[in-house]
Fold:
Amino acid sequence: MKQFFEGSHAVAEIIKLCKPGVISAYPITPQTHIVEDLAQMVADGELNSQFVNVESEHSAASVVLGGSAAGVRVYTASSSQGLILMAEVIFNIAGMRLPVVLTCANRALSAPINIWNDQQDSVSLRDSGWVQLFAENNQEVVDFHLIAYRLAEDKSIMLPVMVCMDGFILTHGMEVVDIPQQEDVDKFLPPYKPLYKLDPAEPLSMGLLGDPGCYMEARYAVQETHKDVLKLLPKASAEFTAVFGRDYKDCLVEEYLTKDSERVIVAMGSVCGTVKKAVDNLRAKGKKVGLLKIISFRPFPYARVYEALKNVPKVAVLDKSVSLGAQAAPLALEVKAAFCGKKCATKNISSFVAGLGGRDITLDSIKEIFKKLTAKEANLEYIDLKPELLKDEYGE
Amino acid sequence: MENRLLYKPGHTACAGCGQSIAARMVIEAAGPNTIIVNNTGCLEVFTTRFPESAWGVPWIHSLFENCAAVASGVEAALRYLGKKDSINVIAQAGDGGTADIGLQALSGMLERGHDILYVCYDNEAYMNTGIQRSGLTPYDTNTTTSPVGSKSSGNIRPKKPMPEIAMAHGIPYVATSSAGYPQDIQRKVKKALSIKGPKYIQIHVPCPLGWRHETNLTLEVAKLAVETGLYPLIEYENGTLAAKRQIVPKPVEEYLKVQGRFKHLLKSPEELKKIQEIADNNIKKYGLRVETQ
Structure:
């Protein structure tokens, strides 16, 4: 049913329909509304779940790890410092092949302390083994959670999934969202049946010491499963369409007017909505521009990105995070890697950084990026920097 | 199922390991309907090197500091499944994993009231990493990070009062025990598991390698710690001292002299006096001395 919801509430509504048996979270802005709403649903008896209030995000992640190992569907949400405090457990959950689903309300990392949106938190955990899906709007947020559980719990995958939604922009943004019916959710997402669980009737040990004789194989297996995710996501997406009607194609990327484009911006998350609007404006003036939206950042769909961009002369990658010390921002590095060693790698792939710490990315910001796509490749160029704040007033 | 070994031989613990003895006592007292959540540490390493496991019960290890939180999740899941009443959940860790890096997670578990027995195997230092001091290392102990030197007589602080810290959470059962008293361990584990809510048991477990005593002296060393008053065996129910093991106190030298980690103290009457004071305070505080007729 279509309703006008805050993004966080929409998340709570869809999680309720997914029926997790254990929910655990620690409050952090801008994730709080999600878990407040879930707590209320449990308090009102609308949701039968054990809601465990913990003393840190490290423990929130550990509680859902334990719940999942005991054979129950679990849920947690975090953001920024909270997600980074979880980092140790995040890696552990993936290595233990537990199908945890987590919502990341994307937010900048300290210092300076900043509660506003960018994507540094989840992007910094890209090597953890989690699947990471980035949503553009709150309908995608809702739908990607369903796909997340479906994917995570697939017997051929058994990996955790992080659904990334931009903090405030989506978590606190009001939108009309179609919340599915319970019976449709049940059709798409049958009750969780674990492959293995902690059960006295069939005792097994989990989390063993992997010495040099076996550790590499365990890590390799996760890597291989990420390849399987690239195959399963399109399948899950098709099943999703069959039940709910909405079509996310392969659910790896979304191509927006890329076919005949001379200039394309690659981006992920809510900024894609702004880019689409800018593309529409420029197209009205006859400019051949487009957007390639990355939905699955992990696994990264290299082949798909190559196919979508191989005939585009100029590509701009817009990152809302940085890898300090690298020559391009994280998403740009991936897009460049997609062309590495390819025959028609005549690409001009520019790396732009924008919107850090919640600075607005406006239509003008996007226009500027398109304008900067000239013959010369831009290298880690920051958009909307304030030169007056960079003056060396206190220097020698 | 009832006849299966819950803690199997063939693990790789050192000869004379006190923790291994105590861990076996704990799980055999708890029985097969138990799920164990284990912190990183010696016990985890020597019982579960892939592809082998010494455990005959479901067992999980995640990280160094989070067994209390993982156990909370296991317990919540069992509650959700309606199985909590028939399955025990035990979280277990060493002294560093309990009193230092895992203290926050433990406090959360105790405060939330989970029906979990937490067992701390206290060998009084980080033995798995090579005998570094922890918050439960006793005063004046020689460890690799509290070494004895011309300006140091070892660890500069007394043991963190973990049983009191656990008790301050208002939990129904707190006890200490010792590898030197296997039946005491088993009685306390059974008692604890008969009580709903969070329980804390701290077991003194000699480490021949770290304490530098002969491997055949493990039980004797453990008993001497109790008999000198340095490791009181106490039992608190609902915040009240319900039981204690009474002793005819032996001088602390008897305990110290069999261990290399305290060797330096035997030459220092001044430091010996301080250790004796710690024992005397325990004896007085808990009323450990056997009253003569």
Chain A touches chain B through 44 residues (CB under 8 Å). The domain at 2-244 of chain A is CATH 3.40.50.970 (Rossmann fold). The CA atoms of residues 31 and 80 of chain A lie 9 Å apart. Chain A has a mean pLDDT of 96.
